[in-house]
Amino acid sequence: MSTKDYLEKDYYKVLGVSKTATADEIKKSYRKLARKYHPDANKGDAKAEERFKEISEAYNTLSDENRRKEYDDARSLFGSGGFRRPGPGGAGGGFGGFDLGDLFGGGAGTGTAGSGRLGDLLGGMFGGGGGTARGTQTRPRRGADVETETTLGFGDAIDGVTVSLRLTGEGACPVCHGTGAKSGTVPRVCPTCQGTGQTSQNLGSFAFSEPCKDCRGRGLVVDDPCPECAGSGRAMSSRTIQARIPAGVADGQRIKLKGKGAPGERGGPAGDLYVKIHVTPHPVFGRSGHNLTVTVPVTFPEAALGAEVKVPALRGAPVSVRIPAGTPNGRTFRVRGRGVRRSDGTNGDLLVTVAVQVPQKLTGPAREALYSFRDATAGEDPREELLRQAKQTG
Ligand SMILES: [Zn+2]
Ligand SMILES: [Zn+2]
């Protein structure tokens, strides 16, 4: 049992009793639940086994007067939000004059609550999106941002496409429809706050209103928890949405689809959906931002004498590219407007890189012609300059 368990787990809820329950009420409820979820009575049912463990853990703490007090103190202390997040490098364990180690003692198994761990702990409690801290339950809540990924074909990434995305997220439990109550039972109005979700405290002339601790501001309490969600009313579910991926997205890009994340609660807006894009490579074309790239083989005579060569384009007919005489291997030519469409409606370019080919097989006349070429260019040594430079600096 860790500090984190103490703060995250609502043992009262697990046992289905109120915070003010007597030792007898706790014992009674424990016996009832333990019988129901005992592994012997639920052979092979992992959920029941998990629930049985929770019940046992809760009872272990709440049945001991001292442990119960420690637990209550810890939760009211942290739940009140009176603690601030420690700064980086803050003293380990000590925190606002209060030592976690003292509170939980060696028996709680947290003798090493360092600042990193403390930071994690508080981050989990007070950080955004957790939503379990008291006080967040009654206000409209924005839905969570959701992250997913999808793989697009090369052309679809360029043209834009509508894809089906399967999103998995937390939603209402399908068994109890979010009530948290076992089927056939209904949650009852919280007796502590009479269903308002708020309790007020009079301090002289001031009255403080705070979310009800017994129902966590929900206004309802569940006596017989839904076995599917253990009374939380929440479950993982998946849904499929149609999402329009805009034209011109690139491999590795992360795009934001506003309002396509998890639905909001109590009238809050939906979260956003972030989609990481993967693009399958094309056998012919590559991408460089909004430019398309293609490598085109040319013969030595074409490169040496100049030529008009046909180059494939991604959409439509091949384009003609003029290769000037004396084009070296690896030179790149630009065909304007034949690349990827930008969001402003303009297009990137097609970048054509020539690869001069060396013939692998020569016919008799071709070989004769090359011998003639060699004889005609005798005396030109392409390595002359290289050798001279190497000698000078050597
Ligand atoms: Zn449920
Ligand atoms: Zn209440």
How is the secondary structure organized here?
Elements: H1 3-8, H2 11-15, H3 23-37, H4 46-62, H5 65-79, E1 94-95, E2 98-99, H6 100-104, H7 115-126, E3 146-152, H8 154-159, E4 161-172, E5 188-189, E6 198-203, E7 206-211, E8 220-221, E9 234-245, E10 254-257, E11 273-279, E12 286-288, E13 291-299, H9 300-305, E14 307-311, E15 319-323, E16 332-335, E17 350-357, H10 364-376, H11 384-393
Parallel strand pairs: 3-11, 13-17
Antiparallel strand pairs: 1-2, 4-9, 5-8, 6-7, 10-11, 12-13, 14-15, 16-17
Helix pairs in contact: 3-4
The structure holds zinc ion (ZN) (2 copies).
Residues 190, 192-193, 197, 212, 214-215, 219 line the site of one zinc ion.
Describe the structure.
The chain is of the alpha+beta class and 394 residues long. It contains 11 helices and 17 strands. It has helices at residues 3-8, 11-15, 23-37, 46-62, 65-79, 100-104, 115-126, 154-159, 300-305, 364-376, 384-393; strands at residues 94-95, 98-99, 146-152, 161-172, 188-189, 198-203, 206-211, 220-221, 234-245, 254-257, 273-279, 286-288, 291-299, 307-311, 319-323, 332-335, 350-357. Residues 80-137 have low confidence and may be disordered. The structure holds zinc ion (2 copies). One zinc ion is lined by residues 173, 175-176, 180, 226, 228-229, 233.
